[in-house]
Every structure is written in structure tokens, then in C-alpha cells.
Amino acid sequence: MSKIRHYKKVYLNSFKNKRVVSLVKTIASYALLGFLSIILFSLLLFAYYAKDLPRPENFTERAYIEPTRIYDRTGEVVLYTLYGEEKRDLVDLEEIPDHLIQAVIAAEDSSFYTHLGVDLKGITRAFFENIRRGRTTQGGSTISQQLIRSSLLSGERTLERKVRETILTLELERRYSKDEIMEFYLNQIPLGSNAYGVEAASQAYFNKPVSQIDLTESAILASLIRSPSYLSPYGPNIDNLMIRKDYVIDRMATLGYISEEEAQEYKEIEISFHPTSQALKAPHFTMEVIRILNEKYDVEYLRTRGLKVYTTLDWDLQAKAEEVIKEAAVSNRAYHSFNASLVAINPNNGHILSMVGSADYFKDPYPDNCIPGKSCLFEPYPNVAMRSRQPGSAFKPFVYADAFNKGHSDKTIVEDEPINIAGYSPRNYDGLFRGPVTMREALAQSLNVPSVKVLAYYSSVADSINLAQNLGITTLTRDPSFYGLPLVLGGGDVTLLDMTSAYGVFATEGERTPPSFIIKITDSQGRVIDETNKESKRVLNSSVARTINSVLSDNEARSPMFGANSSLNLAGTSVKTGTTQNYKDGWTVGYTPSISVGVWAGNNDNTPMVGGESMTVAAPAWRRFMEYALSLY
Questions:
Q1: pTM of the model as a whole
Q2: Does one domain contain both 14 and 154?
Q3: In a domain, 596, yes or no
Q4: How far does CA 507 lie from the centroid of its chain?
Q5: Looking at the chain, which terminus has fewer C-beta neighbours within 10 angstroms, N or C?
Q6: How many C-beta atoms surround the C-beta of residue 543 within 10 A?
Q7: Are strands 596-602 and 585-591 parallel, antiparallel or unpaired?
Q8: Are 39 and 116 within one domain?
Q9: Domain-embedded: residue 451
Q10: pLDDT tens string 45-66
């Protein structure tokens, strides 16, 4: 009986074992089938979503939105930047400080250099943290995922987009090195104030290249990645930005990039943020450059294609010109003159080296000198250098040049005596008459009566206008009879730019090159797409030009009127002044073979100065600037 029970027990146990084995096999089969199904489903899902995905190589093929920068002639001074919706400047990873890369890793993706694009630990940690807090406070996205999301996908929060993001992230990691991905990321990440990429952000917030920022500033940029608008240093949440900055620095210490002691020191460093206003240098000159660009290119093209515009401006001269004109406007208030302007040109190539269109572009009009709703003695924004004003006696050299061109010489005698030509009776500045004078003496001393005679008897209104136009004066477009004999005393409106350029023809002994603002324009790759090549043209007989140069540099000849030690007595220069009869304008224009400089002083609304004439309101500024220019040229 016991044996029967034993065999029965063995049989039952064997039966049970077979059932267990069978069950295990069944479960294993289903598990394998499920696993294979998941793999197959994942592959199908990958294929389905991948078929229309943008390719990762778009990072190297796509045209980043880059602003157009306007530079001085050296390409080292940025005068202005034309941004679209995105301010972006691309930099190589080698130009980005290690401590910025470390700060970004500490803030956004501590295992960036070890994961395959998707950080499962980070996703899990963020998942449980969000459950604990009852809201979404953390994300598990890696730097690679952020790059894909912000660059190639929409911002919608759906399961489908997350799948597409993951697939493309894995493909990105397969195709590119970690350093390449980091460079892509740092060049396109939005950081607020329309700044995209760390270089644009560094310029916007700290006014310096990203290569020059310190660790604390790097922590600021890394902090802004999380929420650039909310944490903006110019908004109400700057305290939260500082808290986030300290957190990033602490994370850098935790990851071993810096010591705890260094972290404490960096957290205590105060940060100064650059003002939000867009920098604008050489404003009147630069605004004219922008006008020229807008005539040649579409606005959107200028704001997004990363053009580099190399202008003719000499920044050293421009800075000096702004200083001189600002000081002149202040000192000239004694003569009730509140504005001034200066232009400097290289007469050999037409390059505008300096242009100051008003005493201070950034200063409000003087409240005490404005008539509300009507006019102001001083307005900062209009470019007086390109406004038409009467030049006074500064126009005389053109008339004398035409007379010399017709065979007369600086030794030709003209009677300085009372005259009346068709009812016109001009007077000299000092009210005196000198009798017979040479044309040299008449021009050097700026005698009005002999000059009117030169225009009437040795030249003509039409011929003088024609010569002035050939030299570069563009505003004398009316019939010669409109101007008449007062033309020689400044009866026709001209611009300071034209006058300075036209005097430059004397400097080059008759060769004219039209003035230009731009040297060349390159695309974002440095290829030249436009270049200014204005050819010179002979417009005046060289012997005539040399005679004018000789007269205008003859200090002895002009001394009887201006004194031997006036502001005009500057070795190596030829110079002429001009004052309108009613003291509305004071001019001084002078030159050397390498530079032509013109200065104007007066009031925007044509209010007459009180006792102000060219020798007191324009000549001192001209001399100060010219002395500086001669030290450079």
C-alpha cells in the first residue's frame, strides 16, 4: 500500500512539474512574442515618423538667420547692426570659453558627453519629481533633444512630436560628434532680447564677444536657457535670474568643474548688464549707409543674411570730429549759434572719412531755444551736412577757377571800387575799398566787390555754375538768371558734403572722384557681393587747380584781412571761409593732398547768429580737427 502511495505521489509531482514547465514555456513564448512585437512596432513607428523628418544635416546646410553688420573701414568697429526678429552671430566652438560650455552642461544636461541622445535617468527623475510636485517643473530633455525641438520641429506638446523628437535625436547623435552638436546648440539657442546663440546674447547683455565673458557671466547665459523671457535681466524677475545663476554655479562645483570655495567667490561677483538700447555709432553717416542699403536690397534680406558692410569711415577721425563739433556748438552759443556739422573726405578716392551731421545726435533739442510746434535753433536728427545752405564767400574759388580757366591769372588786376551793375551794389565785409588789387589778393582776402567783377567780366554765372557742377556741386539746378551776380557771394544753396568734395578736386589738382560711403559688402561667408569702384575723372585743368591751391594757402596774401596768426594759418593746408550776409551760416573748408575738411555752423531754422561769422564759429573747429587729421594722414 505504501508503494502505491509512493508511485502515486511521484506521478502527481511529475505531472505538476510538466505543467509548470509548460506554463513557463508558454509565458516565455508570449514574452518573446511581445518583445519582438515591441521591436517590430518600434521599427514600424520609426519608419513611419522618420519618412518625412527633416534631416540632421540641415544643421550644416540651413542658412542661419544672421544680422547685417555695418563696420568702419577697418572692419573692427561695428557702427550698427541690422537685426530681423533674430539677432544671431555664429562662432566656432573654439571661440567659446570652456566655463560657458561647462555651465550649460551643468544647467541643462550633466551627462551630455556620455548618453546617446536620450537620457533615461533624467526622464525618470523628472517624471517622479513632477509627480511629487503635482505639476511639470522639470524636463528630461537632453541638449540634443532641445536642439532638435527648437530647430527642426514645432513647439506643440504631443506624443507624436515627442516620438519624432526622439527618433531624430538618435539620428543626430549617430551622424555628428558631441562637440559638433554642442556648437550647433550654442549657436542657435534662444536667450532673450531676440538674441539667438551665445555670441549675440553676450553682445546684447555684456557688450563684448562671448570669448571674453567670465564664469559668472557664463552662468547667467546658461541660466537664461530655461526661460529667457521670464528671467530677462531687464525684466521684473532679475532676482530669480540671480538665484538660477547661483544654482548653476553650485552645479558646476558639484560636477567638479570648480571648487566649492571658487563657487562661493563667483556667486558674490556683481554683474553689470549692457543697456538695452541698440548701439549706433557715427549716427548721421550710418543712417545714410542704411538708406543706401535699403535702396539696393530687400529689408528682410538685410536683416537675415549676415552681410558685412565695410564703410569708408575712419573711426579715429569720426570720434575726434564728434568731439570737436560738440565743443564748438557749446562755445558758439555766445554768438547765438547752436548747431554745427563737419565732413572729411579723402579726395583721392572719394571716401567719406568722417561725417557729423549735427552737434549731438543723441541730445534732445535745447528746450529754451525751441518754438513749440514751429522750429528749433538746434535739432539733433536732421543731417545738416546734406542739407542745402548758402555758402557765403566759400563759393568764390569756383568763380575764380573759371576765370583762371579762361586764361586770366592770379596776377590779373581788378579794381576794388564802388560799383552798380543792373542795380546791384555789393560791399566788402569791412566797408572799405582798396583800389587796384590782384585776383590773388581779392580771393585770399575774400573781397566782395572784386569778386563780383570777376564773375561779371571774367567769368559768367552760367559758366561758374557749370564748373561747380563738374567739381561736384549738385544743388545748383535752376536757371542761371535765378542766381545772378550774388552767386559769387553765396547766393546759391549747397551742401557741406558737396562743398567738401568739390574742394577736394583742387586738392587732387583737377581729378574728381565722387564721394562714397561704402567700400565693399560681403556675404556671411566673406565673399564680396558688392564693391564701390568709383573712377576718377579730370574735371579741371591741373594748372588752374594749382593756382587755386597756391592762393588759398597764401597766408601773407590773406593777412591784411584775417591777420597773420588766424586759425587759417596752418602749414600745408589751403583753406577758405564763408559767411552769409545775414550771419545765418558760417563756413570753413580746407584741404591737403590727402584730406578735404568742411565745417558749417549756425542754426537749423536759419535764425541769424549774433555777431557770429566763419572765423569765430567755424574756423577754430576746422583747425582743431585738421591738426588732428594731419597727425594721421
A1: 0.70
A2: no
A3: no
A4: 31
A5: N
A6: 12
A7: antiparallel
A8: no
A9: no
A10: 666 655 555 555 555 555 566 7
